[in-house]
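User: Some background: our group keeps a shared notebook of sequences we're curious about, and every so often someone picks one and asks for a predicted structure to add to the entry. Today it's my turn. The entry only has the sequence so far, pasted here. Could you supply the structure so I can complete it?
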Amino acid sequence: MLPHLGAGGAQKVGLLAAEHFSAQGYRVKVVTLIHGHPVRHAIPHGVIHQELGPESNSHPLLRDGWNRSWMARARRFGVAQFLKAHRLLIRAQLLLLSPWFESRIRPGSDGLASTLFSRRASSLGAERLCSLKVLIEEERPQRLLSMLTRTNILCCLAAWDLPIHLVVSERNDPALQRLDRVWSLLRRLCYRRADVVTANTDGVIQALKLMGQWQRLELLPNPVPTSLEVSEQQLTSDRRQQEILALARLQPQKGLDLLLRAFALIVPSSRNGWRLTLVGEGPEGTALKRLSAELGLDDVVSFEGFRTDTQTFFRRASIFALPSRFEGMPNALLEAMAFGLPSVVSDASPGPLEMVRDGVEGFVVPSENVEALARALERFILDQGLRERCGAEARSTLAAMDWSVLEPCWRSVLALPKEG
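Assistant: Of course. Here's the predicted structure to add to the notebook entry:
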């Protein structure tokens, strides 16, 4: 279960797992919640993709916008204000009763606290939850894997009293991810329904331990696609260009504004001939392009947008940079390591730090420290031998992320029988 199949690391991992287990004979269906969202990934052979369907964002009494009479307008205004007040009341009730809920609710229980919580929480997304619950009851899947926080919460509510093995996957560091008070409360309470709560880094596991008590908490690392099994012959240094690569969604989380400012700080004599390439799309795209122009980098920075041929960029780049403000385990970093790229990452979240040791697979710089980021990039720019040594270490470290190593963990979490 995913919100959509647009650009994103969770989408890559979800489809990779779907492809892997479909090839082993399991019937796998990928369900997305947002109707009509552009699909940016190829659906693997044998995997079924289904959108949950369009969600009406309006009450039946609000759907006659064509009626411009003053009575209709007054009615629509009154209904809209009532619904807004109702949502605010529900949020207030959840927050006010949260201590009672946290001490009493048990998924599957018909106790007053559990029943009241599930009904109040479900009313915040009633139509989508109703559709999701109907789908689950019709399909009767033996296992459900959900990814990304809000999707996880919806799946927990939809499966609250249903006999299904539910696994939720937290993809970012909850200690740094910003959720409002209600959604943060819903995560703490709804995740109790999950048979297994998973994360893709040890750091996120530790943060989740502090948030609540779960039925089972497990590390579920991101596997590396077999398509990233790159031979040494493909990684000869003469194919590399003087290029720093950042592959990420263009949003504040990824810290790409910091990367632009750091690149601008490197003295022209050091970065002579070097370029910075940003691959990805997102809400911050326009602002980043404007910042690039303000810094005088238009001639040395390229914005490539969303691309499916990312291997082209990994093969030709010499350095990978991802100064994120918070992260889980970024797939782009794993892909860069598979292609033997040294990386520069921030210390904001534990995920990248589990893969990149400072001075070994790359450099780790303090979060939000543009000067330190510039110095790390400059060290790699000026020292080809250092780049090659760190890149070789990165490929060696990544070998532990192969499917052959991780499969027992995935099978255990999904309650699948052991192979053989």
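Suggested note for the entry: The mean pLDDT is 87. The radius of gyration is 24 Å.
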